[in-house]
Amino acid sequence: MLDFNTAQTPTDALLATFPRHASGVSVITCSDASGNPVGFTATSMTSLGANPPLIMFSVARGASSWEAISQADYVGIHTLGAGNLELAKRMAADHTKRFEGDDWRSGPNGVPVFDCATSVLVAKVQQVINVADNAIVIAQVELGAVGAEDAALLYHQRGYHSPGSAL
Amino acid sequence: MLDFNTAQTPTDALLATFPRHASGVSVITCSDASGNPVGFTATSMTSLGANPPLIMFSVARGASSWEAISQADYVGIHTLGAGNLELAKRMAADHTKRFEGDDWRSGPNGVPVFDCATSVLVAKVQQVINVADNAIVIAQVELGAVGAEDAALLYHQRGYHSPGSAL
After folding, report:
1. CB of B19 within 8 A of CB of B11?
2. Fewer beta carbons below 10 Å: N end or C end of chain A?
């Protein structure tokens, strides 16, 4: 029987649990008020129904991307494959270097697009809900493009993986 | 360069994209107003900061679990491993048979607990946000227990997987 550890803080309980969970990896982008590209690697992106087609993700309100995301009309949602490992790492590292390469362009509605992603959705921000130090962003899909076929990229136990064979 | 398909409906764009994404699998439980166990398999569960320790997930407001979840004070969040494949399938199938076995018990705050899970968090519901036909539930972790070590369970391309080796 599982032993609920009442001596543990709730924060420690959460931190002990989440290494057991795996997440899909995506890259979220937008333009800031000056038209500069902004973006980050997210492990919280999920769909919120297909009709209307909504997606959601969370962002820390202390993150470098927060101000731009909170003001954005449109966001780009990139699903990543195993071949996008370098992109996933770059978009989670020094925010001043994320768009230094020539692997992105300004796409529909000014959303920065990485054409190497396995797919991209362009979605209109509908709600930004502040929750403690984070925010949940809900956006409605307007356009999409599917890219190269590749194994999905996962984040699990502080590392990147792709799915193993079917169970 | 990715080709944004303007002839495609936004719903079709979302549906074409999400097979490229993988998700961690969890089981969410609660008690209904009569004290009966209710629960479902979720692929949307994610943390929303560790301090305070919050989790969130989405649920369809047409789902069998919705009424109970919308009224619950506490929810149980179970991360699953490869060894929980049968549980994941059962909690996504006929809702009248999900608690027929003897593999669950009433845990802290009346939350149904599956001891076979790789971890369980007991969390107090803080906000339920309706968005179109779905809802986002935000809950604050109060207690946790870590179970058997196992490979994480993923959902990807209509099937279950565990992570492959690190990239």
Report:
1. no
2. N
Q: Top-level CATH class of B24-155? A: mainly beta
CB B53 within 8 A of CB B141: yes
| DSSP code per residue over A38-86 | EEEEES--EEEEETTEEEEEEEETTSTTHHHHHH-SEEEEEE-BGGGHH
Which residues in A lie closer than 8 A to residue B152 (C-beta atoms)? Answer: 20-22, 156
Which residue in the set B2, B113, B151 is minimally distant from A2, CB to CB?
B113
* Dist. CA A101–CA A46, nearest whole Å: 27
Question: For A37-53, what is each residue's pLDDT tens digit?
Answer: 999 999 999 999 999 99
Give B167 to chain A, closest Cα distance, Å: 5
Report the gap between the CA of A11 and the closest CA in chain B (Å).
Answer: 5
Which among B4, B119, B142 is the nearest to A10, CB-wise? B142
Whole-complex ipTM: 0.96
For chain A, which residues make up each domain, given as ranges?
Answer: 24-153
CATH of domain A24-153: 2.30.110.10
Its pTM stands at 0.97
For residue B16, give the nearest of A131, A144, A150 by CB distance: A144
